[in-house]
Write a structure and sequence with these properties.
Blueprint: H1 17-37, H2 42-47, H3 49-68, H4 71-76, H5 82-94, H6 101-127
Helix pairs in contact: 1-3, 1-6, 3-5
């Protein structure tokens, strides 16, 4: 994509309609990926090429949408590996021989649940009162 057409997320406010769309895309594709593997064990998943490819496609979309999120959202959630997530899309698309069922499964099980919680929090903040800034979560006691 040309730099002229690429959204400039560094300066885009996190309450823009585009940001909402990207957050909703991430949430949707997390949910779809989870549905694809619902009730499957890892052993069942790794031999089911259709599901493996479908989940990998969801992860590609999540990766691309994450790249477009404003930096301020990413800064509020340093526990999410945003750079790794963006880089994973390149692996899925270009270094596909490095995509293993185990890597995809671990992403589903370990990385997506906390990401989904962050996405929900950001979407809730967009729906909340506009005069209250989003505060980072309190650390556990």
């Amino acid at each position: 994509m040309s730099d002229l057409l690429r959204p400039q997320t560094r300066f885009m406010p996190s309450d823009s309609p585009a940001t909402r769309r990207w957050l909703e895309d991430i949430r949707h594709h997390i949910d779809v990926a989870k549905q694809f593997v619902a009730a499957l064990s890892y052993e069942e998943f790794r031999v089911d090429m259709l599901r493996l490819y479908a989940v990998t496609r969801c992860l590609e979309i999540i990766s691309e949408a994450s790249r477009r999120l404003p930096d301020e959202i990413k800064a509020r959630h340093p526990s999410i590996a945003w750079k790794d997530m963006a880089g994973a899309g390149n692996i899925y698309r270009h270094e596909y021989s490095d995509v293993t069922a185990l890597r995809v499964w671990r992403t589903l099980q370990l990385a997506l649940p906390p990401l989904r919680a962050v996405i929900e929090r950001e979407l809730s903040a967009l729906d909340g009162p506009p005069d209250q800034p989003l505060k980072p979560p309190c650390p556990p006691p």
